[in-house]
Amino acid sequence: KSSFPDYGKKEEEYADQEYAMMLMTWSAEVIKYCFHIKSLPIFVSDWTGQYNHKHIPSGRLENIVCNSKLAEQFITEIRAKDPRYDLMPVNCSDSCDCATGDTTSCACAKTEFYQATKKARINSKGFFITCIGVGAAGVDGLNIPLTDYERQIPNLVSCTDDCNCGRKCLQNMTHGCRCIQAMVNMPGCGWDMRAGEDIPRGVFISSMAGENVLISEEGTRDDRMFYIRDKPIDNISYTADRVKNDFCYNNHSCGPTLLTALVYHERDPLLPRPAHITRQFTPAGCSLTWDYYPPHVKVPFDCGCGFSFCRK
Asked: Which residues form a coiled coil (predicted)?
C-alpha cells in the first residue's frame, strides 16, 4: 500500500453503469482464459479520482496463438520444402531435476532446433541452441538497463504436461503465472500491471497471445499496434491487435523488471511465442515493465520511467 498514494482513502465512482458492466464482463473473461487462478489481475480503482479515462482495448481476450490465412499458407509451404521444420517433440527424462529449479539435466532447456537464418546462435552442426533455464534469466540488482545479452532475446524451450517434472517445474510455462498481479489504472498512463506479491528473479509471468501475420499484411490493417520481429521466418511478424491477454498491459521502462524471451511451447522451430520473465527480484507494488525497443530505434513516444538513463 505504501507504493500507492492515498490508496483506500477515496472511492471510485463509475461515470455510468455501462462501464461497470464492461469491467465485470472483462474480468470474467480473464478468469475464463487464464491457465492459473493466480494470473487473475486484481482490479484496483483509480485512487486519485481525477483520471476519467476508461478504456478497455479492442480485440478478443484469449490466451492463444493463431495464424492469419496468408501466414498459415506460407508456413505450410515452408514445411513442405524442408522437413526439418516439422515439430520436434522433446520430453524431460526421468532423471530431470528442473522441478527444483536445476535445469542442468533438463532435456527441454537444452533442446536444439534446426535454424536456417544467419541471425540465430548456430553451432558447428547447423543447429541453434536454447540452452538457458528460466531461473538463469535476468540480472542481480534493480533498475538497470537491459544488458547486451538480454537484448538478444534469449530462446527458451518450455516443459509441458507431457514431461515428468510436474506443475511445480520453473521451466514449465504452460500453466500460466504462479504469482499475484494487480491491474491498476494509473493517472495519465492508463492500465499498469504491478506485482501483487514479492516475485523472485527468473519467474515466468505471461506469454503473449496474438496472431502470426505476413509482413505484407501490415499495410492492410488500420489497427496494427506493434510487432515482435525477431522470428525465425523473416516474412512473419507477430501482433496482438486482434487477440490479446495480460501481456499487453505490461508498460515500457528503460530499466525494466521483465525480460522478453522467445518460448517454444509446442517445440515448433518456426513459431516461438514471446514471453515475459522477471529479470530481477520484484517487490510487491512494483510495476511489471519491459523495454519496448532497443536504444538505436527511435520511436516517437514519451517515457515516464524517470531513470537517469531514460531514453525519453
From this structure: none
Query: Topology of domain 59-178+197-278, per CATH?
Result: Beta-clip-like (2.170.270)
Q: In this prediction, what percent of the chain has a pLDDT beyond 90?
A: 0
SS (H, E, C) 130-180: CCCCHHHCCCCCCCCCCCCCHHHCCEEECECCCCCCCCCCCCECCCCCCCC
What are the backbone dihedrals phi and psi of residue 9, each rounded to the nearest 5 degrees, phi first?
Answer: -85, -20
Where is mean pLDDT largest: 24-28, 83-87, 193-197? 193-197
Burial class of residue 138 in the structure, from the number of CB atoms within 10 Å of its CB (0-12 exposed, 13-18 middle, 19+ buried)? buried
